[in-house]
Amino acid sequence: MASSVTIVEKLRSEFGDLWFDPQSLVTGGLRDAGQVFVKIAPEPLPDVMRYLRDDPGMRFEQLCDLTCVDYLNFPGATDRYGVIYSLLSLTHNHRFWLKCFVNDPEPIVPSMTPIWPGAEWMEREVFDMFGVVFEGHPDLRRILTWDGFEAHPLRKDYPLRGKGERTDFSVTRRDSA
Amino acid sequence: MEKYQFDPHATSSDDVLTTRLDRLVDFFRKRGVNWARKNSLWPMPFATACCGIELMATGASRYDLARFGAEVMRFSPRQSDLLICAGRVAIKMMPVLQRIYKQMCEPKWVISMGACASTGGVFDTYAVVQGIDQFMPVDIYVPGCPPRPETLIEGIMAIQRIVDVEGIKASGERGKGLGLVAEPRYQVAVAGEGSE
To answer: Which domains does chain A have, with CATH numbers?
Structure first.
């Protein structure tokens, strides 16, 4: 079982030219459990992920979760969308987190579906809710909202009650049914 | 031969009721087929949320919807004549509900059960229909979040009254219904009221 700090050091020795910025996963004065996440750019993401999955010391067989946060108007945030990858190694029983920040107008992240097939629906959900495009995804369609829905509702600038989508609908009447 | 008068409400020690066929036809001519139909409503449960749990409780032994002849839940709209929409309906789900309604044979009735199906409830968001009556006909609204089984039974009895009064006309000919509101008969005790 490697600690998060050891994983970051191994990543640094393997991908020396990349800028990793490890930060504690726990914020707000809570007890630090030694878990960190690293920031990473979209371009080197497939190589780093493939290394994390295949290296004998890493063996992250499982992509536990793939989600996203919209940092619009977040205090101190510089980038808008943070795509979060949560990894688990069943062999070594260690976990690791990565955040990949992208911005408007073209939030594009390479797809993890070729590396972990389970990423397919999670990437579809992030695309549906945030509009982040996953390059190389085999079937990037909406998964939760209906066909014909235009917006990405979990973006912070999307109003809770929608933009009139819920009233724009065909009506079944007594005499038409 | 007054002895063979057909009376469905008569209490008799005999287990077997015999009548002449012309008496039976005469009875249906007087009371109408409405009497038979209102006592054998076959609901189509469209349960999407916690109201569905109360709907199940209503059908189960304690509240026993069979007392009103409406216990035969049919999971095919072709075989049912009462659609009970129990729970919130997402906009993606609305075409499904409309299609189920269209697949039901006339005559048919609709109960909108609970706050979410009737108004959207607390789910005032982009994805939830703010009352199914915006997009399809509704005969009875049953209030509550979720309604108690007594309230749902009140709603089903209101449907029975509609069947009795308006008959088995197709829903397009029935108009907007009787305007009946299902309300619970019991008094809700409010804390602090009356004690001081």
So the answer is: 4-135 (3.30.460.80)
